[in-house]
Amino acid sequence: MDHDNLRKLLKQVQKGTSSIDDALEELKTLPFEDLGYAKVDHHREIRNGFPEVIYCEGKTIDQVKGITLAMIQRGSSILGTRASKDVYEGVLEIAPDAVYHASAKCIVVNPKTQQLHPERTIAVVTAGTSDISVAEEAAVTAETFGQKVDRIYDVGVAGLHRLLAQLDRLRKAHVVIVVAGMEGALASVVGGLVDRPVIAVPTSIGYGASFNGLAALLTMLNSCASGVSVVNIDNGFGAAYTACLMIKD
User: Where does the PurE domain lie (predicted)?
Assistant: First the structure.
């Protein structure tokens, strides 16, 4: 149950159109609903501003369907990350309007249709084309939560002129998410060009000595540019969630 539905229920009790017993029945699944294999946190949007997100990897199709159904019944916006096409096809059985973003590996049901802050933009920037899948996880996450996204892809430091050609777009953004593998230098470069928070996402893209993203992670953590924060390897979702919190109010 989100803020709007909870407020509506309380007003119904106040006006006498809903009894206290009916309201209590409605609130029984707050703060969570126990499905046996999962405790669905319906209260999270009230506490944190955004609903619980389903991390699909490691869950069975039936488990994902059960969690999705519980959230649908509460009117939540639903985002499933790290989802396979098979999981999506299972979710379609209970949510025919579900959308699968193949590059991001995300399932979206009932996204927020109204942008929370149309005048505020999250720029999602990648060093290379190989980083786009992680970047798309970030972009889809932000859009599902009602935020405006500007995608700026394949502007890595190997061709710095590509990045500089997008400087106006970067400087218009309110938060910049930088997604890069290899040595991960792009985050520091962007951090030195803008006066906005930069959230760096190291990816596991690269040859052997990149150590599946560890090299990029260490580079980003040791950035000499002020205002650069770092999330875990390949964690586009975490970067977008943080960016949404930065600009939601």
Answer: 120-249
Cβ-Cβ contacts under 8 Å for 183 (sequence gap 6 or more): 206, 210, 215, 216, 219
Other Cβ atoms within 10 Å of 114 Cβ, number: 6
Per-residue pLDDT, averaged over 216-241, amounts to 95
What CA–CA distance (Å, rounded) separates 213 from 203? 5
Q: Rounded to whole angstroms, what are the CA distances from 31 to 34, 43, 48, 209? A: 10, 5, 13, 46
Q: List the beta bridge partners of residue 179.
A: 126, 201
* Omega within 30 of 0 (cis) for the link into 31: yes
Q: Is residue 98 a contact partner of residue 129, using CB atoms and an 8 Å limit? A: no
Task: Report how far apart, in Å, the C-alpha atoms of 55 and of each of 38, 59, 120 are.
Answer: 12, 8, 27
Under DSSP, the state recorded for 211 is G
Q: How far is CA 220 from the centre of its chain?
A: 20
* Across 195-201, average pLDDT: 96
Assign domain 121-247 to a CATH class.
Answer: alpha beta
**Looking at this protein, which amino acid is placed at residue 29?**
T
Judge residue 111's burial from the number of C-beta atoms within 10 Å of its C-beta, 0-12 exposed, 13-18 middle, 19 or more buried: middle
SS3 at position 193: coil
Q: What pLDDT digit, counting tens, does each position of 92-144 carry?
A: 999 999 999 999 999 999 887 766 777 889 999 999 999 999 999 999 999 99
Cα–Cα dist 10/132, whole Å = 44
Q: Which residue has the tokens 């999250």?
A: 122
The amino acid sitting at 197 is P
